[in-house]
Amino acid sequence: MDQPTSCLSHVLIFPFPVQGHVNCMLKLAQLLCREGLHVTFLNSDFIHRRLLSYTNIHLSYKQYPNLYFETIPDGLPDDHPRTGDRVVDLFNSIDTVTKPRFMEMLIARRFSILDRPPLTCIIADGIMCFTIDIGRELNIPTILFRTISASCFWAFFCLPRLIEAGELPITGQSDMDTLLTNVVGMETFLRLRDLPSFCRASDLTDRGLQLVISATQLTKSAHGLILNTFEELEGPALAQITNNISKLYTIGPLHVQLKARVATNIKLTCTSSSSLWEEDRSCIVWLDQQPFKSVIYVSFGSMTVLTRDQFMEFLHGFVNSGKPFLWVVRPKSVAEDYQIPEELLEGTRQRGYIVEWAPQEEVLAHPAIGGFLTHSGWNSTLESIYEGVPMICWPFYADQQVNSRLVGEVWKIGLDMKDTCDRVIIENMVKDLIETRKDEFAKSARLMTKLARKSVSENGSSYCNLDRLIKDIKLMRNGN
Predict the structure, then answer these.
(1) Which of 74, 125, 416, 432 is catalytic?
(2) Which listed residue (10, 21, 223, 375) is catalytic?
(3) Active site annotation includes 89
(4) Distance (Å, whole) CA 328 – CA 316
(5) What is the pLDDT of residues 16-71, one digit of tens each?
(6) Is 371 in contact with 296 (CB distance < 8 Å)?
(7) What CATH class has 281-435?
(8) pTM of the entire structure?
(9) pLDDT tens digit string along 261-275?
(10) CA 406 to CA 236: how far, in whole Å?
(11) Which CATH entry fits the domain spanning 10-151+199-273+455-474: 3.40.50.2300, 3.40.50.880, 3.40.50.2000, 1.10.3470.10?
């Protein structure tokens, strides 16, 4: 006999409306649905339209009759670029437009309609902490999901201490290579230049800086914190976080956890892309023709914007390296118009392949890939770790500066190229990664891959933590 809907758990998942955040939170939605929970996924109108345009999302999610999609405005016009250099605009519009609309939707019980149970809890993006107070007012527990690394979250958590100690703000006289002494557990490797990009504001009243400080401190008042990482990867940072936040769920890498669990159920064999651009699968055909571990894959993610000069430095470096390269150049990801110089055309034709967007997980798993030149976004970093692909890191903003330092200095699975964009350095790093030091990096990468795979296997740390999260959500339904 079917249970009445009032006896079922119903989770509202509410991501910050950009590609990387939507990507991993959609995977969590699938995982929760697979375990019998009802999930409403609240997306911005803009993001949802792009998902409908470029993915088979509704076809794939027919497997999950307990998954529902709702939309909410993000407050920006459709022609706004929504890139990393303009992300403060998104913060502001969410505060003025999305926040009051979200409150109205909850008060009207918009998400508890038809055959859906009442909301058990909210899982909200960790930089939208207004959900905590709104949830508390309506007696709905809120769990926050930070889509950044644990190490970056801990660096954010320590910002008040850095300011009090005089290590921030950064001024024109600051030595960017100075080791920081007030991020506990990271004193031996974290430099001023490795702090998240928001920390480079010379004015401590900067809107972006203040937002990440307040959002991180407010995490302590949430019902719990979810991180897309695993204990074996970021143990020291997680130990510090646990001292300050009692309910912590490390459940990553989520993209692998989803594949592993879905594969065990013959009724649920399909997962959906959550790409906001059309994936050009011709690059897979091109990769099939390349030698084993010979190609450098290049992607700067969904938010990075290059100058024309930076684009040209990268192109010169790739062509001059003599190595095959697959480069994702997202529409409008270069700030100015450009034309490939005549002297680079032949080398680009012979060894390069440029697409607007690629099926990244499949690309990184391809045997022809020998390295990944990345913006060091956390999803990309985890995907590369899982596939054992060494990285060259060129971070753009947010958490990416911390992640690139971990790759180069702590995990030793690549090279950190932050704050430089020079064709000679790019050429030499590509050669180092693909040729000179390939065995060194491959050995470290294989170890990390082994740890990642163990964490999401049955009885692994992330596998058990996801089970604990699901159990705790079901207990919330009973008022505990």
Answers:
(1) 125
(2) 21
(3) no
(4) 16
(5) 999 999 999 999 999 999 999 999 999 999 999 999 999 877 766 678 889 999 99
(6) yes
(7) alpha beta
(8) 0.95
(9) 876 554 444 445 678
(10) 12
(11) 3.40.50.2000
